[in-house]
Amino acid sequence: MKITTIILAAGKGTRMRSELPKILHKIANKTLLQHVYDMSYQLSNNAIKIVYGHGADLVRDTLKALAVDWIEQKQQLGTGHAVMQVSDQIANTDIVLILYADVPLLKLATVKQLIANVNDQSLALLTVNLINPTGYGRIVRSDSGQVTKIVEEKDASATEKLINEGNTGIMAVQGKFLKKWLNQLNNKNAQGEYYLTDIIEMAVADGFNVLTSQPESVDEVLGVNNRLQLSHLERVYQQEQAEILMEQGVTLIDPTRFDLRGTIEHLGIDIVIDVNVIIEGKNSIGNNVKIGANTHIKDSIINDNVEILANCIIENAVVGQGSKVGPYARLRPETVLAENVHIGNFVEIKKSSVAAFSKINHLSYIGDSTVGSKVNIGAGTITCNYDGVNKFRTIIEDGAFIGSDTQLVAPVTIGKNATIGAGSTITRNSPENQLTLSRVKQVSLAGWQRPVKHE
Ligand code: UD1
Ligand code: CA
What we know:
- There is one protein chain.
- The protein is α/β, with parallel strands linked by helices.
- It is 16% helix and 34% strand.
- It has eight helices and 37 strands.
- It is elongated, with a radius of gyration of 31 Å.
- Calcium ion is lined by residues 223, 225.
């Protein structure tokens, strides 16, 4: 059984009040359209087709990596008209699934249940009972409870408006019949649009059953029309992510103040995450990791027993087992910390590796460097890696001790177990096991007197 999924994505989204097409707005840093795509991509034997229109170039450009057929709907003449654009790409035996790009949280299980209702005599429709169905098409049923048609809000009579079973717009039907009914659509209605919903009445006239199912939660079928709805669905999504993590053994001090904007591909247990932590991109977090408040981690690997204190920013970095980072540390891309490394407050590290048991505890910038094991880098040490044109590397070998307030002017190597005196500007390689310092000798002037104020 082959499935063709049609994602309707041509609409403008006027109420977003945005230059950006609605479906490129994001939940958890992922576009609405991508959410719908990612869900439907999990259906097997499925060809995905996206009907796009508003913001065409930008939409295609942003999502060019998707494995789909793009079908342009030049004028948005209604949901029926949108599906018609795909007609000649639908095989008679296909099951056609209609999804909306602005309904991002629909679940795979709900879709599978819907599809299971499709056969030669039945069309499957996803409906939802709403306390306030304003704006939705209403599901009209006969006295015996059979669906007879869908009436759009703007075409509904006063009694039809009282129906609180709403049309989600999501449906599944066999290709052969869909194509037949699409051919019969007209736009003689209050909005002058080709309504996809009109095929329901045609199906019933052809002796079809309309089988309805409902999502587990209303949030699954809520659309995004404005930024308030966008923020609501962001929260729903985040609450769900938080619950999944807690089920897997993560303590979230406050699940309402945690944001996952990506994935944690490998997740350990006994992880404790304090408030206002954001995890973005693709990450891995080992066992017994503690993450302090207000920390932002992106595309990083955090190994077992790591402690990250509050207010750190970690991007595209690896933090080795047992290491301690922060508070207020910044690990920039291509930072690799081995086991039991200590990175303290106001330390920035970029494109550098730091081997086991080394410490960089206060106020330092380490860039383009290779730092050996058991190295101690004193407060205020700076690698001068950039001459304004080119970047150079600093190598600090095992066991070196760098005194505070030192500048290491790259390219430069500090030998094994070398000691650098505090306040030095090191411009040449420093031999191993020796003390190197570049400091003006301290003098004291015995006869010196403080100036006095002239009266
Ligand atoms: C539609 C349904 C309504 C349902 C509601 C649920 C119809 C006629 N009505 O109404 O019964 O309760 O959704 O939200 O189907 N689109 C296109 N091209 C078009 C028109 C729309 O791609 O020419 C896309 C939009 O981008 C959107 C989706 O189809 O993703 C729904 O369109 P929208 O205008 O929001 O439909 P509603 O009037 O809300
Ligand atoms: Ca809508």
